[in-house]
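step=predict obj=G-protein coupled receptors family 1 profile domain-containing protein n=331
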Amino acid sequence: MENSTKVTEFVFVAFAFSHRVQLCMFFIFFIIYVLLLSGNVLIMMTIRTDPRLHCPMYFFLCKLSFIDLCYSTVTVPKMLSDFLYDRKTISFHGCITQLYFFHFFACAECFLFTAMGYDRYVAICKPLHYSTIMNTKLCLWMVAATWAIGFVHSNIQTSLTMGLPFCGPNEIDSFFCDIPPLIRLACTDTTMIEAMIVANSGFVSLGCFLAVLISYIGIGSTILKIHTSKGRQKAFSTCVSHLTVVTFFFGPCVFIYMRPSTTFKADRVVTVFYTVIAPMLNPVIYTLRNEEVKTSMKKIWGKSRLCNGNTRKHCANVSSKPQLPANSNLT
């Protein structure tokens, strides 16, 4: 690969606008990124602080917020810095590194969504056995499996891409290094590599989406059997947030990776949506649709303001009120 590759850097051309437009886009995406960081950090701090949220559902939500932070940080800071320059470049090894970690966190998020779907399925379809099935050991194993599968997936994708020769041109029609726009620059026949990459990505994205879909088919059939409208509404409200986030994530992924590496005009918009907008919307969706999270946020941050305005002794008394968490070993 080193003998056949002559390209030492790549140039991003997706957002090649005038300097004034690029400054406007910098401030827009900077605000989005700050909201993304603050929203996900707020969810993680709330779940870690409130013992009543130490259960499998919020355990997975905390891990999702952490992955969203990592997943977006792989691409967004580089994009923001590129808005300040006319020529947007990245070294060959920097490009491969960005590609590796992007697919690592994206694959981990795919399987984490699957784990969250299974958690909701057990909670609604088998409520009497929920605490037995979704125990601490299983939750930890499921999270560990998401990281392990992400590691294997990203290694396969990166190895296939690095095996291609790049001898020019070096302009990537995107704002970060991803496989579809990158393999278009290879100076060799990529038909076989594309098929292998699509098969690998398809197994991850489509497989996880179908697993989540099957879980929600079972959930839907169970909800329809609930006779009381209040019970049906409560069961539905616990799942609609997760289903919305899953749709926002898997829809663009299937559109980008489940087809040959041809270029469409909508690619840039779709890519921005699932790399920047969706991670920002996740904490908003889960917060607005979840009364427990909203209540915990109000109590925790209300208590914090109370402590700032009173004596240390009073704060110690407020924070020492006994609480009995469910599955408190999940933090």
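step=describe
The two ends are 45 Å apart (CA to CA).
step=end
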